[in-house]
Amino acid sequence: QAVVTQEPSLTVSPGGTVTLTCGSSTGAVTSGHWPYWLQQKPGQAPRTLIYDTSNKHSWAPARFSGSLLGGKAALTLSGAQPEDEAEYYCLLSYSGIVVFGGGTKLTVL
Amino acid sequence: QVQLVQSGAEVKKPGASVKVSCKASGYTFTSYGISWVRQAPGQGLEWVGWISAYKGNTNYAQKLQGRVTMTTDTSTSTAYMELRSLRSDDTAVYYCARIKGGYWGQGTLVTVSS
After folding, report:
1. Pairwise CB contact (< 8 Å): B99 & A102
2. CB contact, 8 Å: B17 with chain A?
3. What was the pLDDT predicted at A1?
4. B50 reaches A (C-beta below 8 A)
């Protein structure tokens, strides 16, 4: 089974910009993996921010964007806010099999 | 609006079975599949499997093959996930999700303890 890798933790200053990445053990991540980005805060269910690489969900703040970067899926947060402190998961699809990354704990400090 | 509402928390003994429900509303149930995802305490997300609400075909995570069964009832727009031969490491919050479009249920805590 494929392994999906994310940075375990990242820190960003309030108002700053940070990019989280999502790689695949099988090679480059493409749009065919239908990358998703989820945000999860303690005690809450995950919430989808980005679907199909770069499409923003209706409730996702404009400061979040998704892309493909250097063979990985990427989530960029521009203008971080304290409320963005959370765990972020990416999800890739491999011919109907879904694999989650291990998550990135984002600290806004 | 799209909603997925799950059944309540369960406590089971090792070896027992659990069946979690997920009632969908706000969209045509048979137009999308339902995925099940679990999260053990303090851990990340783990995909359990997927069922087509239209045809009923399924795709299960390899490690749970043989112990998990997913079904749907189109008359009530409800999806079900049954997990058998429960072990302590099955203790987790189980989520249903309409991943296409990005909708998640609130989660159901399943605790396996003697």
Report:
1. no
2. no
3. 85
4. yes
